[in-house]
Amino acid sequence: MRLQIDNLGYIHRADICTRPLTIVCGKNNTGKTYLSYTIYGLLSFLQQSRPFQIEREVLDNLRQKGTAQLDLRKYADEKQLTNVFQHISEQFTQHLNRVFSSPEGEFAAAQVTVTPNSFSPELSRPMKIDFQLSKKNTITVTKPEGATTADVVLLNQDDAPPPPSHVLSVVINRALCGLVFGNYFKNPFVITSERTGIELFSKELDIRKNVVIDSLVEGKGKIGDPFDLIDKYISRYPIAIKDNIDYVRDHQRLRKTNSFLVRSPDESEALFEAWGQIMGGKLSIIANQLIFVPKERVNRKQVRVPMYLGSSAIKSLVAFDLYLRHIAQPDDMLMIDEPELNLHPDNQRRMARLLARLVNKGVNVFITTHSDYILKEINSLLLLANQFPKREALMEKYAYVKDEVLKPESIGVFVMRGHKAEAVTVTDKGMELSVFDEVIINQNDATDEIYIAQKE
After folding, report:
1. Residue 211 pLDDT > 60
2. 110 is in which domain, residue-wise?
3. What is the model's pLDDT at position 205?
4. Same-domain status, 20 and 67
5. Residue 341 neighbours by CB distance under 10 Å
6. Among 431, 453, 451, 412, which Cα is nearest to 19's?
């Protein structure tokens, strides 16, 4: 996916083409969070947008007869797709205030442009999509392999009235996005840098929500503007943070399903072993409470640690654990602000290798980072894609495995500098990245000179 961002917050210009692994780094207050929130907001926006113009005849047939047919060639020709990408760009740019929960007009000068980037629709693959609109309304979209038309069926149980046309338009648009775009636009899951606070204060956030509900009920219509009350008790967050809060609130329901990684235990056993090394234990639900159970150690009784007493490192990993075990699907977009958050350097290196494993299993990963350890580890995984005499011996010595090796074409790296996103060259010789080198060299020089001066 490729998009161009202009005049958004700290960002004057960013031209980003995401890869299976996309890395954004740079100093504080250079626009990394603006960039990641924009991409997450775009992918979330596309799940509810209506970029395709659905013919009135299709909507009428669906409401009146319960069936309709979509000619995909009408929605996938070059002219139509040009209009669709333009529509997405214009509508999402107008949506930016909601993405960042900012005052109206905050991003009046901003522009986000989504480009096809050599996109070509593949209409031959089969697909069946079910949408449960309510307890009594279901839509099924079916397209056989090789066909260029899709059949849409609306089922209304117990003679329930059909949904309004605008609802049907949203559903058909979602189906068309899957049929026409395939996996070009990914399903996102975001883990923000605020995650430790969200985990710690999630119950307080729910208490605030309940206060609003109780006040509305007790007021019995005597409250002036209920939205004033909501603004009073509930803080406004960017969409990425809001969704993170929802993950924590809804974790018990989300944990009832299994990710594709858990459903393939033989193929993912090594990945979860690597994850267990980073976690240092496992998470469990005990008496409706999330509990961390550390690994057993010699001469120490088994302990159970409630989340409010857990370390900052464990709090920072909760959402990631939820994703790996219960949510992950192939070709997702996993977005993490600062995956190194609260992790010791050895775990930062393990994190880099775990992310590489996910990429090689088909999960797209987008990270922002300040960690030289993560970047150097990923650079090593790049170099190991080459064949050289001591390669196998070095992999064995440092416990690298083939599932962690990365190819240059799978990685995109950007440095936020001078209000722009600068693309970094990535080849089989590694990443041409020196964003941290100047700081490290300066620190080493200072340490050496101080030490020598004391000896004089």
Report:
1. no
2. 48-186
3. 56
4. no
5. 23
6. 412
